Amino acid sequence: MGELPDAAMRRPRVAVISMHTSPLDQPGTGDSGGMNVYVRSAAVRVAACGMDVDVFTRRRSPDVAEITELAPGAEVVQVTAGPKAPVPKEELVSFVPAFIEGVERRAGLVGGYDLVHAHYWLSGEVACTLRERWGVPLVASFHTLAKVKNRSLAPGEAPEPPARLRGEERVIAGADRVVAATPSEAAQLVGLYGADPERIRLVPPGVDHELFAPRPRRAAAERLHMADVRLLLFVGRLQAHKAPDVAVRTLAEVVARDPAGTRDVVLAIVGGPSGTGSGAEVARIMDLARALGVQERVMLFPPQPQNRLADFYAAAEVLLVPSRSESFGLVALEAQACGIPVVATRVGGLRYVVLSEATGFLVEGHDPADHAVAVLRLLSEPDLGRRMGLAGVEHARRFSWEATARELRAVYEEVLLTHVRA
User: Fold this and answer.
1) How far apart are CA 218 and CA 201, in angstroms?
2) What residues contact 24, with CB distance under 8 A and at least 6 apart?
3) Where are the domains of the chain?
4) What is the spatial distance between Cα 11 and Cα 42, in angstroms, rounded to a whole number?
5) Which of 11, 229, 252, 405 could form a disulfide with 45 if both were Cys (CB 3.0 to 4.6 A apart)?
6) Rounded Cα gap, residues 244 and 323, in angstroms
7) Contacts of 102 (CB under 8 A, 6+ apart)
């Protein structure tokens, strides 16, 4: 039986590629979201499991340090590739060669890497080249898939470019293992991309249960200065695909159906704009709220630090997740860990994360009237909300970053052993 490379001499070393977004970024800003939380949380805990992890990301500011330690054995490496400034994601492919050179320089300094794990298709382009040059195994995670996204576009939303579609196909065909968050994503990889089922491994994301846990609602609401309202909550990047417009329309429908009983109901939207022309999304949200007559009930908040975000969850009556597609839906898991029921669209990973009729409601489609029916049940039946909240806490305990790290390590060990035997 094979052994891990140099197992008696040193810990295996993993190069994690996250070219377009950094695990140091605040989730909810720009292109930062659940993937950033995943990369950071997994890197820290995989390092605690006995592997050294370097996370490579593109340097977007001259002021950031080249090396940042996340935890013992886990570091973020800023690679200079293109300007030390934000660049639209669509333009980053031209900087892939320079990024590869930067990663290889670091590899020369540390004595090389035993495997490479790419997150998102751009990182996969980098990792495929490194795999060939280094002769090491490649693990790939996508977090979102272009073909899935293109099948569920919002009105007026531009489809993902052909370059991304081709890139995903190359990475999926070339990876030794592809990590999927849910059975739904695994099926999409096989059905839409022809992925080899034998190379797919299910590794669900986790949740930080020390941070995201039940808190007294009144105290959390007072810290947010919202103690006298009942709060509907939307958390996510402000982009059409996340459907914040459906959240606003749902609020308006709730108010229209029960004006007297919902006088104290407001909607908090926590997140920042994302993507090219994303600033217009903020204006569209507020224009829509004014047109629907609920502008005084809609509050926009910038992305929040994790501890503050936990207060938003705790203060809420319900989390709205009306996304058009989700590979997983980490915010839904975080809310349930805090004891908050979720009303979400029945798409992608949300069908796996939310237990409909038990920890919340899954709604077919994006008709605000249908989402409003579920919200009104929770607002009018406090005992139902409490029961669903308790069930959500129990359900969320199935997921932890420690479990994610153990399963990732098992995938890494599998490909390393297979590589040694080959």
Assistant:
1) 42
2) 40, 57, 64, 68, 76
3) 13-206+400-421, 217-396
4) 17
5) 405
6) 8
7) 56, 79, 80, 81
| φ, ψ dihedrals at 238, nearest 5° | -85, 85
Q: Same CATH fold, 217-396 and 13-206+400-421? A: yes
**CA atoms of 50 and 46, how far apart (whole Å):** 7
- Angstrom distance (rounded) from CA 225 to CA 417: 55
| CA 103 – CA 111 distance, rounded (Å) | 12
Q: Where are the beta strands (DSSP E) in 182-264?
A: 200-202, 230-235
The CATH number of 13-206+400-421 is: 3.40.50.2000
Q: Given 3.40.50.300, 3.30.2170.10, 1.10.375.10, 3.40.50.2000, which CATH number is that of 217-396?
A: 3.40.50.2000
Q: Give this prediction's pTM.
A: 0.92
Q: Please state, as a whole number, how many other Cβ atoms lie within 10 Å of the Cβ of residue 302.
A: 10
Q: Is 277 exposed, middle or buried (0-12, 13-18, 19+ CB in 10 A)?
A: exposed
**What whole-number distance in Å separates Cα of residue 401 and Cα of residue 311?**
21
DSSP 319: E
pLDDT tens track, the chain, 422 positions:
344 544 446 799 999 999 998 999 877 666 667 899 999 999 999 999 999 999 999 999 999 999 999 999 999 999 999 999 988 888 999 999 999 999 999 999 999 999 999 999 999 999 999 999 999 999 999 999 999 999 999 888 889 999 999 999 999 999 999 999 999 999 999 999 999 999 999 999 999 999 999 999 999 999 999 999 999 999 998 988 899 999 999 999 999 999 999 999 999 999 988 755 556 788 899 999 999 999 999 999 999 999 999 999 999 999 999 999 999 999 999 999 999 999 999 999 999 999 999 999 999 999 999 999 999 999 999 999 999 999 999 999 999 999 999 999 999 999 999 887 55
